[in-house]
Structure formats: C-alpha cells, structure tokens
Amino acid sequence: MLSEKLRERIIGWDRRLSAAARKVRILSPLKWPPEVEEAFLDAWDRGERVLPAPPPVAVDYHRPIEALTALIEDIDDAEPLGGFLRRTAESYLAAARMISSAGKEPFTRHSIALYGTPRGIIADGAPSHLEAAEAFLSQSPVLPPEAMAITEPDMSAEQAQAWMQERINQFFDKEHLPVEIHDDLAALASAGARRVRLRGQTHYA
User: What is the pTM of this model?
Assistant: First the structure.
C-alpha cells in the first residue's frame, strides 16, 4: 500500500506530466497544407513520383522539453506507478524532440526511439512489425472482391457529418456525442469519448 507521502508525490508527478504533455502535438504540426497535398496527389495520378514540399514546421516546444526533462529527473521509478509515469514522460519528450527537429536528421532518430522500426519486434516472442504486415497482406487475397472495392469519395464533410450523426443518435444522445467539423484536423477523422471530429474541406466515401 502506498504511503501518504508517496501518494502525494505520484499525484504531483502526474499533474506535471499532464501540464507538459497537453502542449505536445504530433500530427497537427506535420499536416500538409491542402495545396501541397493536392499537388502531390495530382502528380501521383499522372505517374510522376515527386516528393512533396511542405512548409517548414513552426513549433516551439522548448518549454515542454524543459518541463519533461526536469520531471524525468525527479521521478522515482522504483515504484511501479513512478516507472509508468517516467516511461510516459520519456515518450512525450521523444515526441517533442522529434517534432522540433522536423526536416532534419534527428527527426528519424527520435522517431525510431518513439515508434521503432519495421524490423523491430512487437513484443517478446512476437513477429516484427514488417512480418506482421506481410502476414496480413498474405491473407488479403482471400477476401471477396467486394470487400476490396475502392469507393470514390463523394460525400462532403457536412454530408458525412449529418450521415454519421444520424446513426450515432440511434445509440447516444447528440448532446453527449456530437459530430464536429474541424478544418485544421490532421487526420481524416478522430473519435473520443465526448465527440467525433471530421476534417473540413474533405470528401468521404
């Protein structure tokens, strides 16, 4: 059982971690502007393999990096909860350093530290990420053709919002799980416990 002193220390570490981590974003800073994405996809459709030219990533993560570095030094990982918080802080620190070095050599090093490599082992006794992907692809041909059919995106974000909200409302209260449109969303869609977000100015199938 945790002592009151250790419990208070763990709560303090957790609060410091939450304060620093909430400022670290990964996908949003790396999002391509619409014109860069369109130019890349248009070139691809023409058979031209041209690397995209997105603008430099403009983020300033020096404060989260300083806060996370200090937190990692302070955490006592002899206690399992402390070890968990320390590993979580280390992952956010790697993410902050990775985004801060976008477009430079350290980006790859920090990315590998955070996500691993294709040949990295998923877990003890498990295959590598590459082997797992190859095993999945080897099973794809057994799927029926209709399951592999590609549907052209013909729904606007607003239409997709209405379509999804109608179906969600069959199970949840609209006020508790709304479907929202966000133009600055990096992914096509994002879902959480309180809302579903769709990227604006995008078409869905």
Answer: 0.73
